[in-house]
Design goal:
38 strands, six-stranded mixed β-sheet, binds fe (ii) ion, mainly beta, metal-binding, Oxygenase, six-stranded antiparallel β-sheet, 654 residues, 6% helix, 4 helices
């Protein structure tokens, strides 16, 4: 098993990219050549290469075999197209393939994700700044029906930016990743735009849509009506709302010093001028099914700009009552998007960042996105892993402030699971983290998804460079001695799946404890013009027998993030995978149900359910399935290589 070897970092990551998918010099003509998006002159063609609202008259090239760069470019644009249609009346969906299995747990699959990328006044926004578009698939295995609803979350920003009379949109908030072209640029301090678009969780009777920069919005789960924000983190100005110190709350305070003074100076500006909430609730949450707890984590707003980080962890019981809370201060400048927990630890894989002074000046002036104030920091060849004691009464001997340094430089995007095991004879502990990670050289805050804030265009080549740089599935193994000192730490591929992959998920019942199976979105590599992204394949990795199997969708079809729904008999891979599929050639979305045990077999597809074309939605999404069992989250994928199977030996475990 070889460790991922990423090329050395550079300060100009994009310079190494092959720009093989640059936009056409001019739009495809209306008259039939094979790169036209339309079939006849009577059908309007999208006039902007930037993300545009669908007109529902546009018909793309239906040829699924076409595999040229121009079609690839346009297919990529369609993935991030705005959707203006909503339905607050449940729509019955057509099962176009297979059938809803009678043992499918009855429940509702919620997805939130950005849905509005371009307004009616010339502004486009980065996909991550798109307004949250909440969808629900209610699956009834008795009637074998699926009902669908879709509504925008009425966040404060959404209410301001959409005219309820005309239905027109005018973006007034910059959003952290965007620059307004049709709105106020210079002097616009309306940066924070809580669009509730990053993930959804149902817990303690509340359905919440989360955003990485602020408080969640509560949604009424039957009507998808927006109730309002829920402050589960803080008082108005940053005092922890969590438990008192003599209860189960533990706070590791900083010792003061220069950066603490700097934080006190920054806070009034961030809170008062830029209206940032004191804490950012991360969109990735965890569910400890053994303890019936929802685990969440937040960061202090000012830490984005300072070389120190405050992380607060919250554990809620099944009634959404806060039962544990801890705050940790780490003297490093880190960007954490996802994290992990075990029986004894919270685990942070530290992505190192630094302040970009020039970018900060431009951002404050409104000339560049606020995110341009930050850049990755590749100054160290290693990656820090913080093992934070999960419980206050931990008798751990090791100093949690000292990170374990993984031997290679890795930017972790998503964590599938982590677990630990102690050898009672030696006292040694083995810890494993399963994650997706990419190269520092590739990751660029200003170019995520290939969005160019200067042009407002999406460049698919950003996501289709040398695949060694792109996100892959990795396994980080740590061995500690009885004193807690690190004896060994290595980073290996998770399985022998070498293709670009992301969104590792598992059976949530195994979260925090040893799992055998990991599922993820990946690429079949069958499309020459889009070899790595968007994803078109679900891969299943078995860590015990070392096998890897996969399922791919049809050509010019893409998938998001899978989610595992257990049948409920306790067997780890006995359940279903839900994934949303987007057939870009026909602009149709489908909910696909796969039998997780049969991934790799021709019979893996259980049902394909079609969303009406007028309710077609962009692919980026985060999911949660509930009602009966509380489960995880999702996103989308392709290939006509019907169902592919790959079984390869693998060679290591924890
Ligand atoms: Fe994420």
């Amino acid at each position: 098993m070889q460790a991922p070897s990423f090329p050395k970092t550079s300060n100009t990551p994009s310079n190494n990219f092959q720009n093989k998918l640059s936009p056409p010099q001019k739009l495809p003509t209306l008259h039939g050549n094979n790169i036209s998006l339309v079939q006849s002159t009577s059908v309007p063609i999208p006039r902007a290469i930037s993300i545009t609202a669908p007109t529902h008259h546009e018909i793309p090239n239906l040829d699924v075999e076409i595999d040229d760069n121009v079609t690839a470019y346009w297919d990529y644009q369609f993935l991030f197209m705005s959707q203006r249609s909503e339905t607050d009346v449940p729509v019955s969906l057509r099962v176009v393939e297979g059938s809803i299995p009678s043992d499918f747990p009855i429940g509702t699959y919620f997805l939130t994700g950005p849905g509005m990328f371009a307004d009616d006044h010339g502004s486009t926004v980065h996909p991550l700044d798109g307004h949250g578009y909440l969808r629900s698939f209610t699956i009834d295995s008795v009637t074998r029906e699926v009902k669908f609803m879709a509504r925008y979350i009425k966040t404060e920003a959404q209410v301001e930016e959409r005219d309820p009379e005309t239905g027109q949109w005018r973006f007034t908030h910059r959003g952290p990743f965007s620059v307004l072209k049709g709105g106020k640029m210079v002097g616009n301090t309306k940066v924070m735009k809580n669009v509730a678009n990053t993930s959804v969780v149902k817990w303690g009777g509340k359905l919440l849509c989360l955003w990485e920069g602020g408080s969640p919005y509560e949604i009424e789960s039957m009507s998808l009506d927006t109730v309002g924000t829920v402050n589960i983190m803080d008082d108005e100005y940053g005092s922890s709302k969590s438990l008192p110190a003599d209860d189960h709350h533990h706070k590791e305070t900083s010792s003061g010093g220069f950066w603490e003074v700097a934080a006190q100076v920054l806070k009034p500006m961030l809170y008062g001028v830029f209206k940032m909430p004191p804490k950012r609730l991360l969109s990735h949450y965890k569910i400890d099914t053994c303890r019936h707890r929802l685990l969440m984590m937040s960061c202090n707003a000012e830490d984005m700009l300072l070389p120190r980080s405050n992380f607060t962890f919250y554990e809620f019981d099944s009634n959404f009552k806060l039962v544990e809370s801890q705050e940790f201060n780490i003297p490093d400048h880190l960007m954490i998007h996802d994290w992990a927990f075990t029986d004894n630890h919270y685990i942070l894989f530290g992505n190192r960042i630094k302040l970009d002074v020039g970018g900060s000046m431009a951002a404050v002036c409104g000339l560049s996105p606020m995110i341009s104030a930050l850049s990755v920091n590749p100054s160290k060849p290693t990656s820090p892993i913080y093992l934070l004691p999960r419980f206050k009464n931990s008798h751990e001997k090791r100093d949690w402030k000292v990170p374990i340094e993984a031997p290679s430089q890795l930017w972790v995007l998503h964590v599938g699971n982590a677990f630990e095991a102690k050898n009672e004879k030696t006292g040694d502990s083995d810890i494993q983290i399963q994650a997706s990670g990419c190269s520092y050289e590739w990751f660029n805050f200003q170019k995520m998804f290939g969005y160019d804030w200067k042009s407002g265009k999406l460049d698919p080549s950003m996501m289709n460079v040398n695949d060694k740089l792109l996100p892959h599935l990795v396994k980080i193994s740590v061995k500690l001695d009885s004193e807690g000192s690190c004896k060994k730490c290595n980073v290996n591929d998770l399985g022998q799946w070498s293709k670009a992959s992301d969104f590792p998920v598992i059976n949530q019942d195994y979260c925090g404890r040893k799992n055998t199976y990991t599922y993820a979105s990946t690429s079949s590599g069958s499309r020459q013009a889009l070899p790595n992204f968007p994803f078109d394949t679900v891969v299943k990795i078995n860590s015990t027998n070392k096998s890897v199997s996969s399922w791919s969708t049809g050509r010019r079809r893409f998938i998001g993030e899978p989610i595992f729904i257990p049948r409920g008999n306790g067997k780890e891979d006995d359940g279903y995978l839900l994934v949303v599929e987007y057939a870009v050639s026909t602009q149709r979305c489908y909910l696909v149900i796969l039998d997780a045990k049969l991934i790799g077999e021709n019979s893996a597809l259980v049902a394909r359910v079609e969303v009406p074309r007028y309710l077609n939605f962009p692919m980026v999404a985060k999911l949660n399935y509930n009602d009966p069992p509380q489960v995880g989250r999702p996103e989308v994928r392709i290939v006509q290589i019907p169902d592919t199977r790959v079984t390869k030996p693998m060679d290591d475990s924890i």
